[in-house]
Each structure stands twice: as C-alpha cells, then as structure tokens.
C-alpha cells in the first residue's frame, strides 16, 4: 500500500504479510509511519493505492471501499490506542460488551459471561461495575484490551499501548500483552520499549521515512552488526 498526506508519502509501497499466531513489533523513529501503517491495516486511514486482504476479504484500495467492507476489516483487526479511549459514561463491563452486543449482534447474556471472563484474564474481576474514571491508567488500558478481545478479531493492533502510562503501571499492561502473545494471539504492536520487543516479539519491523528498513526475526534485529542506522537507533533508545 501507498499512503499520502498532502503530497507527502507517509507509506512508500509497503508490502507485508502477517501470519496467524505471530507477535510483530514495529519500531522506528517518531514520524516514520508506524501509526499510519497500523491505521491503514485497520482502515482508520485509507491508502490511496494498494490492496488489503484478511482471509477471504480482498480489497483493492485504488477503488472505493464500501462501508460494509470497512466494517469487516475493522472487526477482524481490533485496535488498542495509546489513550485507552473507553466510553466514559459506561461501566467497565458495559465497555467490554458494547461491541459484541451492538456490532456483532450477539446474545447479551452470553456476552456478559464472556466479558467477565476477559476481565478476569486481565486481572480486573473486581472492577466490572466501576467507571473508567475510577481506574488507574494501567487498569483502563487493560479494560481496553479486554474490549478488543471481546470482538474476537483475527489480529490485535496496539499503537504505543503503554506510552501514556507511568513506568510502574506500564509493567502490568506489558504482562497482559506478553500473556496474549504466549497464548498465540496474532498481534502487531508499535512500541518504543526495546526490552519488551526483545522479550516478546517473534518478528521486528523497523520503519523509517515510510519504508521498511528491517523485517525479520527479533534476534537478528538486535544482533545486527551491518546496518548502521539500526545500530544507532538501538543505541539512541538505551
Ligand atoms: P509515527 O507513528 O511513526 O510517529 P505517523 O504514522 O504518525 O508516524 O506519521 C508519519 C508521517 O505522516 C509523519 O510525517 C506525519 O507528520 C504524517 N501524518 C500522519 N498523520 C497525518 C495526518 N492525519 N495528516 C497529515 N500528515 C500526517
Ligand atoms: Mg505514532
């Protein structure tokens, strides 16, 4: 895909395949196109040219994308944002069940059970009846993760999920991400946390100026001795 903003090419002919069960971490300097890439995968931004396929959905992005197609892509690629984005007027459990009930039209009783299970999984069984404003940032982000999981997407997308959190709250969210990764969920995560990337990622993508400078195994990225740009990036983050 290609993505332009006012003539500036934010994604330059990006061609990627993401496999089921893999955790990919996207690294790169600020402004390199990491968020744009995630948002294009989710069709929050629409690339001017390219194709996007998930299983039996195949879209030619040069033509127009219908509302139905956009919704199908969104349902298969749930996004967790830096700023949590919970519905402030809804209690925690209501936040989690909202999508499955209203978008997926699932039976409310079954969804409530599932929602409680997902909240237990992220360590928030005791907060189902709280409002987002009564939770810490780390807890709110864990609700956002449970809400994304409730949609049963094929891919989970995370755009700097811990960068709005204090360091002591970051760990509890990273632990949830690590558990999901070990469970075999298919995840694409933008982060600046290199230790997390090293520990959890199966694959690293390194972006700069809308191009992919590295796409490969995590170990190869961190052991890389040839690419000066990657070495200086890693050094600058330490
Ligand atoms: P990153 O997430 O790696 O920091 P972004 O994907 O946010 O980078 O941005 C990539 C490039 O696209 C930057 O030059 C940025 O200024 C530009 N850009 C991103 N979103 C928009 C937008 N909505 N309008 C105009 N330019 C944008
Ligand atoms: Mg970004």
Automatic annotation (TrEMBL):
One Gene Ontology cellular component annotation held by this UniProt entry: plasma membrane
InterPro entries: AAA+_ATPase, ABC_ATPase_HisP-typ, ABC_transporter-like_ATP-bd, ABC_transporter-like_CS, MetN_ABC_transporter-like, P-loop_NTPase
Main location: membrane
Membrane topology: Peripheral membrane protein
Pfam families found in the cross-reference section: ABC_tran
Transmembrane segments: none
Record keywords: ATP-binding, Cell membrane, Membrane, Nucleotide-binding, Transport
All residue ranges annotated as the ABC transporter domain in the record: 1-234
One annotated GO molecular function: ABC-type amino acid transporter activity
Annotated compartments: Cell membrane
Coiled coil: none
Name used for this protein in its record: Arginine ABC transporter ATP-binding protein
């Amino acid at each position: 895909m290609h993505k332009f903003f006012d003539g500036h090419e934010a994604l330059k002919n990006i061609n990627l395949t993401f496999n089921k069960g893999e955790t990919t971490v996207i690294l790169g300097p600020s402004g390199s196109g990491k968020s744009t890439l995630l948002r294009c995968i989710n069709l929050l931004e629409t690339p001017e040219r390219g194709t996007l396929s998930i299983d039996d959905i195949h879209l030619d992005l040069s033509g127009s994308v219908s509302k139905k197609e956009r919704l199908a892509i969104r349902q298969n690629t749930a996004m967790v944002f830096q700023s949590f984005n919970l519905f402030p007027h809804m209690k925690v459990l209501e936040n989690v069940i909202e999508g499955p009930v209203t978008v997926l039209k699932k039976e409310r009783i079954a969804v409530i059970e599932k929602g409680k299970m997902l909240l237990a999984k992220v360590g928030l069984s005791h907060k189902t009846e709280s409002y987002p404003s009564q939770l810490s940032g780390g807890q709110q982000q864990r609700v956002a993760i449970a809400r994304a999981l409730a949609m049963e997407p094929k891919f989970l997308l995370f755009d700097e999920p811990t960068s709005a959190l204090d360091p002591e709250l970051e760990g509890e969210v990273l632990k949830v991400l690590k558990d999901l990764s070990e469970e075999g969920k298919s995840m694409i995560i933008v982060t600046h946390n290199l230790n997390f990337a090293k520990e959890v990622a199966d694959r690293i993508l390194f972006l700069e100026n809308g191009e992919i400078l590295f796409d490969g195994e995590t170990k190869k990225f961190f052991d890389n001795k040839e690419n000066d740009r990657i070495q200086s990036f890693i050094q600058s983050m330490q």
